[in-house]
């Protein structure tokens, strides 16, 4: 059966346009297969960006190609399904930061989680950072959860005397953009180096300006910088 005919034969299971994973409840085995597909897609998108096929996802997940096509239809819909899961987790992390017993640590943990997500997922990073008020109902709902929660976390850290008083919530979204760009640049030579620069930036946002912890990882060497620059320019050609 071709992917197109397989897709047409299972219209009862087509996904909602606003949420690719939100259909009527699935049987236990179908739910397991769906999660395997999403897990495989997350790994492949993280490693290869958008340069993957649904056939590769099916092979990675250990399911038939028809299963992927019936459930998601195309690569962009599958990316949406992976993205929705990541956005839900990001929302939960933002809300946890706003309620953390240590206001500064809550803010740090949110930044670490968000930066790790962006650093490890090449395709998702670009989509997450383009999220705005006009991104659709589901995306807009997530944005309405994330931004106020981060704002509360920022204000709590200020009130606790941990965050410099002139810091703004927009500074943290700019921070995510910066760290994501650095992570993409350094990925070929040192995929974890973003943690060093996140620590440096967060130290600069502390009210007393004093480092709380030692830098978690060494910096890039001259050779690594040149190697990373070479890869970066090749990707831009």
From TrEMBL:
Residues 1-31 are annotated as: Disordered. Signal peptide: none annotated. Residues 1-22 have a biased composition (Polar residues). Residues 53-72 bind DNA. Keywords: DNA-binding, Transcription, Transcription regulation. Residues 31-90 form the HTH tetR-type domain. Pfam families: TetR_C_43, TetR_N. Gene3D superfamilies: Tetracycline Repressor, domain 2. This is TetR/AcrR family transcriptional regulator.
